[in-house]
Amino acid sequence: xxxxxxxxxxxxxxxxxxxxxxxxxxQNVPFDEEAVKRSLERAVLSANSSNLQLWEFYRVKxxxxxxxxxxxCLNQSAARTSRELIAVxxxxxxxxxxxxxxxxxxxxxxxxxxxPKDKRAVTYYNRLIPIVYSYEPTGIWNSIKRVxxxxxxxxKPFPRLLTYTDxxxxxxxxxxxxxxxxxxxxxxxxxxxxxxxxxDQVRVRxxxxxxxxxxxxxxxxxxxxxxxxxxxxxxxxxxxxxxIFEI
Length: 247
Ligand SMILES: Cc1cc2nc3c(=O)[nH]c(=O)nc-3n(C[C@H](O)[C@H](O)[C@H](O)COP(=O)(O)O)c2cc1C
What we know:
247 residues, alpha+beta, NADH Oxidase, 4-stranded antiparallel beta sheet, 10 helices, 4 strands, 49% helix, globular, binds flavin mononucleotide
């Protein structure tokens, strides 16, 4: 499907340009909680590695709990004054459950007998994903995978993201894309956000009662931005010529 309406680009441009990280929020103005729900539902449509969706999103709305959580976000003004705090969490430990769900969803589209493309999908979800995502605390398995990647890579292009740390990075990438979709979604609804990595990861994990290998990728403050106090300065970006290249 193509969207051939140039107005879409204009609207998108407006949303992207208007989104700023807002550090102070209005307190006594209407706030549509459903906008958060809609934006999270948009967030889960984000591109993500292997479609494993190794993410979770926690909404903290209760004022008392939010106040306690804001303290763990180093008492930042964005967290303190927000209407809600969203924790974007990665769950690399759920790889088995999620890869089975993805496989079950794509299985009906396979041909009988399996085409080479189908066979690749079977191998990918049933063999490769478990090899790459499996966790083993001694680090031996990681070293083996690193050596295999190195040796294979001498002969041909070979994916090098094989260790457990690599998997965590991949999960954080996907989570960050979802966070951006969420923030743009909130802006499209007329609300503001502030992504935060300034928080105590250990205490926030405990606060959310997350399992051992879950990690909080980002906290996001949401609310009705207070202008101009909420904007800490004019938007600055490195000139495009210094960061966008044609090769
Ligand atoms: C991963 C990440 C972590 C961030 N952490 C914080 C934070 O802890 N506190 C804060 O006030 N802003 C934080 N920010 C917001 C950035 O400072 C902000 O995006 C940047 O200055 C650009 O401004 P803009 O978002 O208004 O365009 C974070 C942004 C990202 C993407």
